[in-house]
Amino acid sequence: MKDVVSRAEVALDYPDKTYIGFFDRHSRYAVEADGKNLILRLEHRGEERKVVDIHLEYPLLAAVLEDFTASRASHKAMQPHERDHLVRALKGLAGALAKAG
């Protein structure tokens, strides 16, 4: 597990309740990939312990990335350090996928 470097918010909205969890620099995360899914685990330890597991099959992950690309085109520029992190990560993903064949 690694420390969360920024912040994530998870909201589950049911008809009778809404659950909201924040995962910040006091939280941890882990990412795994198997033959079908990307698995993201967010974990906040302590008295208010929270754990969220998100499983995204690769076609849905691809659709999310495509929609993210389209939405970025209509928004103002990102902070340079945020953009640099994303560019580096996406180049690394592209390289790993190319090697995997």
Plain-language structure description:
By secondary structure, the chain is of the alpha+beta class. It has one domain (2-100). The protein is built from 2 helices and 6 strands. The strands form 2 sheets. A 4-stranded antiparallel sheet has the order 1-4-5-6. Strand 2 and strand 3 form a beta hairpin. The protein is globular and about 40 Å long. It starts with a strand and ends with a helix. The mean pLDDT is 92.
Please provide a brief summary of the model:
This protein is of the alpha+beta class. Helices cover 37% and strands 36% of the residues. A hairpin with a 4-residue loop joins strand 2 and strand 3 (18-23).
Give the topology string: H per helix, E per strand: EEEEEEHH
The total count of strands amounts to 6
Task: Describe the global form.
Answer: globular
How much of the sequence lies in strands comes to 35-45%
Strand order of the largest sheet: 1-4-5-6
Number of helices: 2
- Average pLDDT value? 92
- Content-based structural category: alpha+beta
Helix fraction, binned, reads 25-40%
* Separation of the first and last Cα atoms: 28 Å
Radius of gyration: 16 Å
Low-confidence stretches: none
**Number of spatially distinct domains:** 1
Query: Major sheet, described briefly?
Result: 4 strands, antiparallel
Helix-strand layout with pairing:
Blueprint: E1 2-3, E2 8-13, E3 18-23, E4 28-33, E5 37-44, E6 50-57, H1 58-73, H2 80-100
Antiparallel strand pairs: 1-4, 2-3, 4-5, 5-6
Keywords, separated by commas or semicolons:
101 residues, single chain, two-stranded antiparallel sheet
